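User: Run a structure prediction on this.
Assistant: Running it now.
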Amino acid sequence: MKNKIEKRIEKISKYLKEKEKDAFVILTNESLNWENLYYTSGFRGTSGAVIIYKDSAELITDGRYITQAKEQSPLNIYQQKKTLIEEIKERLLTHNSLKVCCESAKTYHSDWEKLASFVNELTDGTEIIRETRRTKDNIEIEYIKQAGNIAGKALLDTLSIVKERMTEKEFEAYLNYRINMLGGESGFEMIVASGKRGALPHGRATDKPIEKGEIVTVDFSSRYKGYLCDITRNFSIGEPEDKAKQYHDILLETHITSAKKIKAGVKANEPHNTACEVLAKYDISKYFIHSLGHSFGLEIHEPPFISTSGNGQLKKNDIVTVEPGIYIPGWGGMRLEDDYLITQTGAERLTESIEQKLFIV
């Protein structure tokens, strides 16, 4: 991991030299922006700052985290004695760094104002961090694969004990329990939507009992060493109606067809448009009400986005979801989602450990 951190730091240092900036400040204020602190330092605390200069980098954190920081990070570490902003000021002035970049999208306005008060120039560096994080390295790819393996096994374990009248919240609780028992962490707040609630794309788990024959859509994740997966599967307790099986078959066709369009150099809207074309063939495209996919990693939504408005090109080592879904008011819905690593010639399904079928238990 040390070499990976160093390479990430080098990319940002190169940017500083090209743009004639002195330093890049990555600030984490009680968990806000922990992802970029972790990405550039290996440290996963809730408070601290990484300062990247043209030829070095350092980590500041408070006494709660010094031991942890020394264990996790290869950077030079400074223990916070004053407020974090005051420590950043001292370090920047020590390095005579007065032309500074920071992330406007990830920094509290009050912190931004304080930084601006003691530097000559403060500019937004959000995009350079986004672009640096966008291309996943081998360690990140392996962590995401492992997160997917854990999540898939946890779902199968949960399906083995599911029973009629179990509530959506009980299902969610057991699935999260299995994820943690298998070595992962619970990811984002999962979606568990049964019966007519399946028409809600973001239907959080409720106290509603799961009834026999209902379709249940589960959009879930595990986190492994900071990195997420993003998977959606559908199941029923006992046989569902034939219409549900037909809809799932259509979604599977849509998923496979659109995934085949994914490769480096493809415009980001092309796979989405392909999904719409397949669904239109069956006259149900009006029920597909979101984009086909998005990238993810340390966060669950990262660029690029595979959508109607996706004008950029997909790149090698992007990791994206493919998640066609239909949501029919008064009936329900379903979604089928997997994670793909983009290569020069196509895409590798990272979540292949779990079948793309409609599970009947």
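The CA atoms of residues 31 and 145 lie 25 Å apart.
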